[in-house]
Each structure stands twice: as C-alpha cells, then as structure tokens.
C-alpha cells in the first residue's frame, strides 16, 4: 500500500459513509475501508485502488473475499464491542470491480444457534452485483488488547 494518491483516488464518499477506524494490523494494509449504519443495518465499503487490483485492473479475488468476510461478518455486530471470527466463507464471483469503483457490501442473518450465526451476503458496485455468498460467524468474548485469548469451557 502507498500513501501517494493516484488519478483514481478521491476523498469523496457517498452520503452516510465514514472511514472505518481500523488503523493497525491487516485492515490498515488493505484500507481505507468505510462503513455506514442505515436503519440498524451495518454496511461496509471500499474504493478499488491500484494496490487492490489484479493484472486486469479489477479488484483481486483475494481482496473481494477479504471484503466479503468483513462486510458479511458485520451483520453479527451489536455494537463496537462485539468480536467475531469467521468459521466458514463461501463466495460466488459474479462480476469484476474495476479500478476506481466504489464497492459496497452487507450481510443478513438467516440463522443462529447459540453464538454461531449464518449470514447471507451481497457485494455490489452501483447496480452491478459482484459477489454473493454465505458466511458462518462465531461471536467471541472481547479480550484486553495485548493479552492472548484463553480457552474456557464456554469458548470450546
């Protein structure tokens, strides 16, 4: 990732979107990422930058799956303190997102058993459906920053 702007970048966002405050780890490497809450639904987004692209100047499939994971998993978030992990992610690639495209996604919970949620998701750019699929996500207890996750009977 580079901090230099290219000719496709812009700081303008569609109404309601704000930058996701993810400034460390993997999210920092693939960002900036955006989100908005609309009628209780959390949507995520990103603009396809040059460092997201494959050899055809479309968003790389790995970036699309990473984004699907984040956008669909967000469906289980009750608030900023909800932590979750991905159990399974199944994606159907339907179309490409070209350099400069604003890509949006969201998931809808379709099943739940205890702390395991099944989510159906969609990823799109404008009127074009790019990806659809299903994710299974597990809500986990939040841990203090810097401390390892310790398994308990409830977390196994």
From TrEMBL:
Pfam families, per database record:
4HBT
Q: Annotated Gene Ontology MF terms?
A: thiolester hydrolase activity
Gene3D superfamilies (UniProt xref): Hotdog Thioesterase
Q: Where is the Thioesterase domain?
A: 58-128
Protein's recorded name = Thioesterase family protein
């Amino acid at each position: 990732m580079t901090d230099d702007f290219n000719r496709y970048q812009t700081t303008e966002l569609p109404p309601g979107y704000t930058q996701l405050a993810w400034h460390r780890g993997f999210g920092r490497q693939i960002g900036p990422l955006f989100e908005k809450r609309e009628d209780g639904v959390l949507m995520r987004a990103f603009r396809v930058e040059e460092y997201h692209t494959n050899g055809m100047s479309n968003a790389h499939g790995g970036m699309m799956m990473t984004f699907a994971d984040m956008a669909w998993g967000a469906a289980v978030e009750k608030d900023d303190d909800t932590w979750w992990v991905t159990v399974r992610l199944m994606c159907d690639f339907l179309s490409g997102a070209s350099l400069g495209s604003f890509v949006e996604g969201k998931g809808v919970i379709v099943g739940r058993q205890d702390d395991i949620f099944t989510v159906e998701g969609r990823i799109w750019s404008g009127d074009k459906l790019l990806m659809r699929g299903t994710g299974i996500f597990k809500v986990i207890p939040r841990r203090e920053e810097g401390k390892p996750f310790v398994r308990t009977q409830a977390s196994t």
